[in-house]
Design goal:
Blueprint lengths: L1 H16 L6 E5 L4 H13 L10 E9 L8 E9 L5 H5 L24 H4 L3 E3 L2 H4 L4 E6 L4 E7 L2
Length: about 150
């Protein structure tokens, strides 16, 4: 009986010590600038009609977990470019964040995403108005007309 118990304990300990990283996947809006703008505009329009013309846009969603053997977490990164003169029309729709925003970036760097160094120059707003998601932020650069959105699930 002692041998059997020892073997079972060793098997259990071995199984517990293996590192099982969750499955990850990425969904990215690709195509020409016009195709990306159309797709990202449609994503935003589910929650709020874009108030001005979008010049360029990008969208990336990272999923951790497959949703079948447990929950999945999502992180989404949006980039919207409008003319600097039209940024105020976007800001009118938004609510100030009220807390400090934390920098986040895609797991694999993208040239369209804001750098850590430039992050502090943004004005921050709540993400729910444009995304329907309460966790995250919208960062706006009045000078460049660039709008960055980060959302996540917990």
């Amino acid at each position: 009986m002692f041998k059997f118990s020892t073997i079972v304990c060793l098997i259990v300990l071995t199984a517990c010590s293996k590192s099982h990283s969750p499955k990850s996947s990425v969904h990215e809006v690709t195509g020409s600038s016009a195709e990306r703008v159309a797709k990202v505009s449609a994503i935003i329009a589910k929650h709020k009609i874009p108030p001005t013309t979008i010049i360029d846009a990008h969208f990336l969603e990272e999923q951790t977990g497959d949703g079948s053997l447990g929950p999945s977490d999502f992180r989404a990164f949006y980039f919207i470019e409008v003319t600097p003169q039209e940024v105020s029309k976007w800001v009118q729709l938004l609510t100030p964040l009220g807390v400090a925003a934390e920098y986040n970036s895609p797991a694999r760097p993208r040239n369209w995403w804001i750098t850590r160094e430039s992050f502090a120059s943004l004005q921050f707003y709540k993400s729910a108005t444009l995304t329907g998601k309460s966790h995250g932020w919208i960062g706006v650069s009045q000078q460049t007309g660039r709008i960055y959105i980060f959302t996540f699930t917990m």
